[in-house]
Design a protein that fits this description.
The structure is a homodimer. Chain A is α+β, with helices and mostly antiparallel strands. Chain A has six helices and five strands; from the N terminus they run H-H-H-H-E-E-E-E-H-E-H. Chain A has helices at residues 3-6, 17-26, 35-45, 51-64, 110-115, 130-135; strands spanning 68-70, 78-80, 87-91, 97-100, 116-129. The first copy, chain A, starts with a helix and ends with a helix. The A-B interface holds A 69, 71-74, 77, 87, 89, 91-92, 98, 100, 102-112, 114-130, 133 and B 69, 71-74, 77, 87, 89, 91-92, 98, 100, 102-112, 114-130, 133. The first copy, chain A, binds a DNA duplex through residues 12-16, 18-19, 34-36, 48-53, 55-57, 59, 75-77.
DNA sequence: ATAAATGCAAAGCATTTGCAGTAAA
DNA sequence: TTTACTGCAAATGCTTTGCATTTAT
């Protein structure tokens, strides 16, 4: 397993088969899966696994900073194993979420300086993906 | 009632006291309230009102484009009566959400052109608000 | 009169939690 | 052998829905 997801294991963090399977599914995954997506993928490929464990593991990983909890979807939480700062394209038709790793210059409004100290930002681009554009 | 929220009323849309009270609370509101916030504020100031009606009304208004449903908070939906394109500051300590109406120039990454047509964007700035900065 | 909204209570999902059994360390 | 994880089932929290009643038009 690659460096990135090893971070998930710290002191007092056990390497169980369930967790390894979840991490294995997340490794390099760009689908921004929900807890249910994780559950379905892992139970299909590997062995039985409970929802409670999926949630426990995702929460532990999020707290450890190994995965990012995305609040892009109003209906459910989604998880991103890529913790490098990046942005997202959201297709308004199929709701697909696509990563943007390219650097996006974001101007900082003047009003911020006075009343807010900014550490980071996240840009959501709304539009149509190529697949949905063809269907029009 | 001002122009903006009159849009909420179209053909076959009834002007009930409950809806007027909800619209009245939303008018000019910059708190990005949740359904529960709406419920509490209206029942306190006006008359009894059911949660079902709050949800029905908010959904109808969102569908009509009179309010924007925000997916900024992982725990619950929040609603923004300001439908002009604008951005948000999110305080990582108190979770307060502050509007940014100032124009924020956002560069469009090259990778987008090929595989995605962009209609709009939304920037979330993460940081600490003035109140929380003082507490540090 | 008609079509739509209200409100209650029940149902539906996503997520969390308590706890007994199980497995990593 | 101790500490933490798993999994079940029950519980929770937000949101939706069915239905009988009420109300705006």
């Amino acid at each position: 397993m690659k460096q990135a997801l090893k971070k998930g294991f710290g002191k007092g963090f056990k390497r169980t088969p369930q967790r390894l399977a979840i991490l294995n599914y997340l490794e390099g995954n760009t689908l921004h899966p929900s807890a249910e997506d994780v559950y379905r993928a892992v139970t299909k490929k590997d062995f039985p696994l409970s929802f409670a464990t999926v949630y426990n593991t995702l929460n532990a990983l999020a707290q450890a900073g190994t995965v990012r909890e995305l609040t892009i979807d109003a209906e459910r939480k989604r998880y991103d194993p890529n913790t490098e700062p990046h942005h997202h394209l959201i297709c308004l038709k199929c709701r697909k979420i696509i990563d943007v790793f390219e650097d996006v210059p974001v101007g900082k409004p003047k009003c911020i300086e006075k009343k807010f100290s900014v550490f980071g930002n996240h840009v959501e681009f709304y539009g149509h993906c190529s697949a949905c554009r063809k269907k029009c």
